[in-house]
């Protein structure tokens, strides 16, 4: 083995799950941000964690109001997933600009992409500084799923977004 960097080894450990973090903006609208660092923490009680850059607008939103929905996007919106992670919600209405169809979830003010395999409605419990990111630890309020929507994954160090059967 040779010494390597963490960004390099992410290409070797593909695929990684892709998630769109949906948050409520100060004006009541929804912001979407793509992340791939998330995981279940506990099944009893149900908890998840995800990481976002400290500079993330979505991070600001969830720290302000404590509400977040993590969705696993599906194949029909693959072309928009990367754009949601490379633009800021500070000055972009990602839903309108990228033409992403949304849907409502029961008991939630935050819109989610209509083409989602999974949606996990959460309340932020706490966040922890982890280098250049914050790790958000969340209580799960309700989980929704549509097994007919094929989940997307990040391949080759996040260079490609595709369902598992198409990579």
Detailed description of the structure:
This protein is of the alpha+beta class and 167 residues long. The protein has a single domain (17-153), classed as Pnp Oxidase, Chain A, CATH 2.30.110. Helices cover 18% and strands 45% of the residues. It is built from four helices and twelve strands. It has helices spanning 6-12, 57-65, 78-86, 94-98; strands spanning 16-17, 19-24, 30-35, 38-43, 46-53, 67-73, 102-103, 112-113, 116-130, 133-145, 152-155, 160-163. A seven-stranded antiparallel beta sheet has the order 3-2-6-9-10-5-4. A three-stranded antiparallel beta sheet has the order 1-11-12, covered by helices on one side. Strand 7 and strand 8 form a beta hairpin. The radius of gyration is 15 Å and the shape is globular. The two termini are 27 Å apart. The model has no long low-confidence stretch (mean pLDDT 89).
Describe the structure in brief:
18% of the residues lie in helices and 45% in strands.
Ranges where pLDDT stays below 50 over 5 or more residues in a row are none
Helix % is 10-25%
Per the principal axes of the C-alpha atoms, what is the gross shape? Answer: globular
Specify the biggest β-sheet: 7 strands, antiparallel
Mean pLDDT: 89
**Strands ordered across the widest β-sheet:** 3-2-6-9-10-5-4
How would you classify the quaternary structure? single chain
The H-level CATH homologous superfamily, spelled out, is Electron Transport, Fmn-binding Protein, Chain A
What pattern of helices and strands is seen along the backbone?
HEEEEEHEHHEEEEEE
Structural category is alpha+beta
CATH fold-level assignment: Pnp Oxidase, Chain A
Number of domains: 1
Which band does the percent of strand residues land in? 35-45%
Alpha plus pi helix count: 4
Question: Nearest-angstrom radius of gyration?
Answer: 15 Å
CATH class: Mainly Beta
**Total strands:** 12
The CATH architecture classification is Roll
Distance between the termini: 27 Å
